[in-house]
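Reposting from the mailing list since nobody answered there.

I have sequence plus structure tokens for a pair of proteins and want to know whether others read the tokens the same way I do. The first protein:
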Amino acid sequence: GVTLEVPSAAVTADLLAPDVDFFTIGTNDLIQYLLAVDRVDPRVSSLYEPLHPAVLRTIAGVVAAGAASGVPVSVCGEMASDPLNAVVLVGLGVLELSMSPSAIPRVKAVLRGVAAEEARRLAAAALGLSTAAAIEVMLRRELARALTPASTR
């Protein structure tokens, strides 16, 4: 397998796919390098945005390259630990999420409450938006609606 942590590897996932059994996307580094933002530097860390359209489109490209070659794609890194992000990742077709054990209950609860088709719809909608802020607002609104029982709406 290959861990994709730099943009050059992600962009060439289709070329790598025939030679591997799986892809793992290392989101901490991929986001940092893709957005040219040091996530630990307080002067620029606020620009580190996992929901940035470039990040989501890059992940979608890796998933598509994997699917075309029968290569499963997993994600490791802090991005998978956020329930909002996890819904988008699953909606994009990511099959496995790796996260710290403390994040599992929250992510699991949200993923159990969202149908796969809804996650795909939300991911597709996110790919059509132009800013991380717009994506986050849409996801929060739609997930609140999806996770609210019909009897209380």
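The second protein, same order (residues first, tokens after):
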Amino acid sequence: MNFKCKYLFHFKFLITLFLTVIANIVCFHTSSQSFSIKTYTTHNGHSHNFVQHITQDKTGFLWISTWDGISRYDGYEFKNYYHNPKDSNTVPFFVVDKAVVDGSNNVWAMCQQRPVIIYNRSTDRFERFKTNLFDRLPICDITLGPDSTVWMINRSSTIYHYSDHKKLFSTFQLFDENGKDPKIFNYFPQL
């Protein structure tokens, strides 16, 4: 190897070594940030220790679906919404499976195939969403579309899309290749 090649080889080696050391220092510095983890339970005011689902609204509240109602957490304390069998204006069942927040900051929740509920901020209560679409078969799942609109499905594979801007439901029916109900929700018990 001539002198020029040796020098170039050493130079490349030193540059690689230097960049590797700098990258490790940067990675070590950024990974050494400390994080604090705090666990919240019923002792802290949470409604139940078994959590089904968590979502966050645009005002910063966390909505935590549990085996005993739904909890709203503001970063300091919990506000709990429970089922009361004697009051039809409460959460319709003990177990809240899931909550979602649509593009208009409405909090929607579903409970074990009971009527869909929506949070009324002016009364600080969950209310059953008023529609006769879910009377025959309650909702089995609820989710948000890419445009933050609400999509729901029932046991007979009927899909409901709700546009808060239009205050309107669109309904779609799923069929298998034989034109029959695909029975995607057969694992849910009949209630």
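Reply #1 (J.P.):
I read it the same way you do. Residues 3-31 form the longest helix (29 residues).
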